[in-house]
Amino acid sequence: MPSDWYVDPADPDAAERYNRNNKDFLQDQATAFLAAHEALLDGGEDPEDELDPPMELAAAGTSQPVWIGLPFQQDFDDEGELGWQTDALCAQTDPEAFFPEKGGSTRDAKKVCGACNVRSQCLEYALANDERFGIWGGLSERERRRLRKRAI
C-alpha cells in the first residue's frame, strides 16, 4: 500500500518507515526481474517456465473462415427502449470524453462511437429526445442540429 494512501495519525513516522523498508525490497525485485530478462535475451531458458511452447500462427493449408456473429446485435426488444445502452461502448468509457467543456476536443469520443455497435440507436435516441449536450451517435450538438435542419 503506498504510504500516501493512509497516514496513521498516532504514528506520524509510519509513512517514512514504510518507504525506507520497501525501498530495498523493490530494488531487489527490480534487480531480479532485469537479471531474468537479460538471461532470456541472451538465449538462456528459464527452467521454472512451465508454459507451453508458442503456437504456430500460420497454420499449414487454408482454413475455412468461421462466422462467430456479434453478440447482442440488434436485439433490444426485451430490454426496453434504452436496452441498447447496455451494449454501448461509451458505457465503459470516461463520460467526460462525451461531454467536453466548451471548445474541448471531441476526437476521443467520436473514435469510440465509430467502433460502437449501437451508434445508430444512440443517434436516433438523441434526435428523438432533443439531446442538446454531449456526443451522441458520433455527432456533436452542432452536427445533430445541422442534421435536423437538413431533414426538415
Task: Explain briefly what this protein structure is.
With 152 residues, this protein is mainly alpha-helical. The protein contains 4 helices and no strands. The chain folds into 2 domains: 7-45; 77-151, no CATH class.
Tell me the total number of β-strands.
0
Termini separation (Å)? Answer: 59 Å
The average pLDDT value, as a whole number, equals 75
**C-alpha geometry:** elongated
Count of runs of 4 or more consecutive helical residues: 4
What percent of the residues sit in helical stretches (DSSP H or I)? 25-40%
Sheet with the most strands, sense and barrel status: none
How many domains? The number is: 2
Low-confidence stretches: none
CA gyration radius, whole angstroms: 27 Å
> Which structural class is indicated by helix and strand composition?
mainly alpha
- The succession of helices and strands, N to C, reads HHHH
User: What amount of the residues lies in strands?
Assistant: under 5%
Pfam families: Whib (PF02467)
Keywords: 4Fe-4S, Cytoplasm, Disulfide bond, DNA-binding, Iron, Iron-sulfur, Metal-binding, Transcription, Transcription regulation
Domain 4Fe-4S Wbl-type: 89-146
Family: Belongs to the WhiB family.
List the helices and strands and how they pair.
Blueprint: H1 14-41, H2 107-114, H3 119-128, H4 141-151
Keywords, separated by commas or semicolons:
single chain; 4 helices; mainly alpha; 2 domains; 152 residues
Describe this structure in words.
It is a single chain. With 152 residues, the chain is mainly alpha-helical. The chain folds into two domains: 7-45; 77-151, no CATH class. Helices cover 38% and strands 0% of the residues. It contains four helices and no strands. It has helices spanning 14-41, 107-114, 119-128, 141-151. It starts with 13 loop residues before the first helix and ends with a helix. The relative contact order is 0.06.
